[in-house]
Amino acid sequence: MKQESREFVRHTVDVPLEVSTVTDEPAATLQGVNVSHGGLAFLYPECPREGQVFQLRIPTVTPPFEAQAKVVWCRRESDQWLVGVSFMDSTHAFQSRMVQQACAIESYRKEILANEGRSLSTQEAAAEWIGKFAGRFPGATTD
Fold it and tell me: Is residue 100 classed as helix, strand or coil in its secondary structure?
């Protein structure tokens, strides 16, 4: 399988990702590794064939993000494979930006609790995160 070639900036995320092949049994819950405008990457126990289609679901955002994506690359990561997939629908690619932000806000909320002991609601974390980071988020426009 060919090496990864980055067409989009990727962002590290720490969210549950439900992954199943389109013709497969129930989804396995994996940890998402990173997400970009055009796709995402996750750890998987094997290297799937290039072009294989997966059904993806991120249940921790409301509404849950669901999309089909095809494998474009994979590479060995110790005892697993890092698999890069590309969204098959441009609507899903657009929605992924919202998922990126929601995941970043949730990570920020957890980080504030761990580092500062402050327990923020999702809305409070979103307001703080937007004030601090939204302008630097890829695709953000500045006037």
Answer: helix
Q: Per residue in 61-92, pLDDT tens?
A: 777 888 888 999 999 988 999 888 888 877 76
CA distance 59 to 78: 27
- pTM comes to 0.61
Q: Whole-angstrom Cα distance, residue 122 to residue 100?
A: 15
Average pLDDT across the chain, whole number: 74
Number of domains in the chain: 1
In a domain, 70, yes or no: yes
Residue 98 belongs to a domain: yes
> Which range of residues forms the domain containing residue 56?
9-134
Q: CATH number, domain at 83?
A: 2.40.10.220
Residue 102 inside a domain? The answer is: yes
Are residues 68 and 38 in contact, defined by beta-carbon separation less than 8 angstroms?
no
DSSP string, 11-41: EE---EEEEEETTSSSPEEEEEEEE-SSEEE
